[in-house]
Amino acid sequence: MLGESFYKKADEIIEMHTREERSLIPIIQDIQEEYRYLPPELLTYVAKEIGITEAKAYSVASFYENFSFEEKGKYIIKICDGTACHVRKSMPILDYLYKTLK
Fold it and tell me: How far apart are CA 102 and CA 96, in angstroms?
């Protein structure tokens, strides 16, 4: 359950945009920038506030890899684990990061 401050901040962000479906992506980008993730409760709230279905909001947010429903750290490290990277020994790098960063 999110605190009232999350909803107040969401209201501020919504007010910077129009209350239309076309504003969904900019609104949720701003929310994610604020919290480093997109709290599912706020996505539901935003959908209601701009007059779209919760399903529509979730389909948009889950379509784009940029949006995350889980809290992230300040820095995000990505390691390629595709075949080409695996062949070039990316896994020892990943193991080292797990060991070093815990």
Answer: 10
Q: What tens digit of pLDDT does each residue of 2-27 get?
A: 899 999 999 999 999 999 999 999 99
List the end-to-end C-alpha distance of the chain, in Å, as a whole number: 28
Q: Which residues, in sequence order, are CB contacts of 97 under 8 Å at separation 6+?
A: 77, 79
The answer to whether residues 28 and 58 touch, using CB atoms and an 8 Å cutoff, is no
Identify the CA nearest to 12 among candidates 35, 30, 37, 32.
Answer: 30
Q: What is the DSSP letter of 22?
A: G
Q: How far is CA 29 from the centre of its chain?
A: 8
Which sign does the torsion angle of CA 11, 15, 16, 22 carry? Answer: positive
